[in-house]
Specification:
Elements: E1 3-5, E2 18-25, E3 28-33, E4 37-42, E5 56-62, E6 65-71, H1 72-75, E7 88-94, E8 97-103, E9 105-112, E10 117-118, E11 132-138, E12 141-146, H2 148-153
Parallel strand pairs: 3-12, 6-8
Antiparallel strand pairs: 1-4, 2-3, 2-9, 4-7, 5-6, 7-8, 10-11, 11-12
């Protein structure tokens, strides 16, 4: 099983670039602040939880610790996809709790400064999804940056 641990979660400065772990769902790239990421693990057996929201796949046993796991595709209303060798779980620490996010694949860590980050787009009703923190222009396209707290707990 592939496991990546993240122990250096400091950013360059309060106003400097922030580091985002980027990942893919379908054809789109997303980013989550690296300060929340504790590790990345391969897919493993998920025990379903009755009456949980549709996007909560269940819980995993990660080295003796029970961690809830959400499927980000399902959270975003995307079509289900069969898990494969590139599918993985990003484990986040948010609000003092570990939560796993199932993603299609992980890309890399990007330094995203204030100059490339923009407010999230608004739609016909003047709003945007509450878990979208902003968008970043990077050399090969755009990354949708997510707010981990809102993604997991709203």
């Amino acid at each position: 099983m592939n496991v990546a641990h993240f122990s250096d979660t400091s950013s360059d400065s309060v106003n400097g670039p922030s580091k985002y772990l980027t990942f893919v769902l379908g054809d789109e790239s997303y980013g989550i602040e690296i300060t929340h990421v504790t590790e990345i693990v391969g897919m493993q057996k998920i025990t379903p939880i009755p009456d949980a929201p549709h996007y909560v796949r269940g819980v995993i046993n990660l080295r003796g610790k029970v961690i809830p796991v959400i499927d980000v595709r399902m959270r975003f209303g995307l079509s289900e996809r069969e898990y494969n060798s590139r599918t993985c779980i990003i484990v986040l620490a948010v609000r003092g709790q570990d939560v796993g996010m199932i993603v299609d694949r992980v890309q890399e860590v990007h330094d995203i400064g204030d100059g490339v980050m923009q407010a999230p787009p608004t739609f016909g009703d003047g709003g945007s999804p509450p878990y979208v923190k902003g968008v970043a222009k990077v050399e090969d396209g755009v990354r949708i940056l997510l707010d981990a707290d809102r993604l997991l707990f709203q």
